[in-house]
Amino acid sequence: MTPTPATLLGLMWLASPALPVGGFSYSEGLESAVDAGIVHDGASAADWLADQLQLGLARADLPLLAATHAAWTDHDAARVAELNTWMLATRESAELRAQCEQMGRSTLEWLRQRSDDSRVATLAALEPAPAWPIAFALATVQTGAAARDALLAFGFSWAENQVQAALKAVPLGQSAGQRILARLAQDLPAAVDAALALGDDARQAFTPMLAIRSAQHETQYSRLFRS
Questions:
Q1: Where are the domains of the chain?
Q2: Rounded distance between C-alpha atoms, residue 191 and residue 209, angstroms
């Protein structure tokens, strides 16, 4: 079903780097990969992010978001709490966990300012904090978006923030950044469809190289980003 103009604008708002949740301040291990020489130009940056999309988001964050979208739609607080616990437990470094919690809390505050939806109180009650995809899922449900559209918005938000991180960390020019974004945008629909097809038993978080790079970023001598 084609989203209404209001829904489409709502999703564009949520996908925008201007959303005040701090996504621009994280590189999710990319800065560490640059420091190690693994990422050193536009092609290697594109490969790193494309792999992260396929091996990370498509198997963990995106299917988790789809399941949470359904749970929020059904007002199923117990299911939301279960999914939040899984999300936080599968962050493989202190920085990735801190990012997930901080962006979740910031989204919660943004939602509090905009809505009296009772589900916002459910989000606020999650312990130890609402995870970023859990909070984002509620925001998309409030726009009236279908699950697939919600996942596309989340994926593009991630892609745009990561490309901006690559521009600063590698560094790259704007044209190179647009080429990387085009590649990620081309891969994103298939990644979303794969995520929608995954059940709970197939969802997984296993990206050892990303975990290692993220952990090493914690003690990296010079850093621009928080992860």
A1: 31-217
A2: 20
The yes or no reply on domain 31-217 and CATH 2.130.10.10 is no
Write out pLDDT tens, residues 119-132: 999 999 999 999 99
- pTM, two decimals, is 0.97
Do residues 14 and 136 lie in contact, with contact meaning Cβ atoms separated by under 8 Å? yes
pLDDT tens sequence across 109-122: 999 999 889 999 99
| Six-digit token string for 112 | 């509090």
Helical residues (DSSP H) of 30-76, grouped into ranges = 30-35, 42-52, 62-73
Q: Where are the beta strands (DSSP E) in the chain?
A: none
Tokens representing 49?
Answer: 């992010």
Distance CA 65, CA 189 (A): 15
> What radius of gyration, in Å, describes the C-alpha atoms of the chain?
17
Three-state DSSP at 174 gives helix
- What whole-number distance in Å separates Cα of residue 78 and Cα of residue 92? 24
Give me the residue label for tokens 């709970």.
200
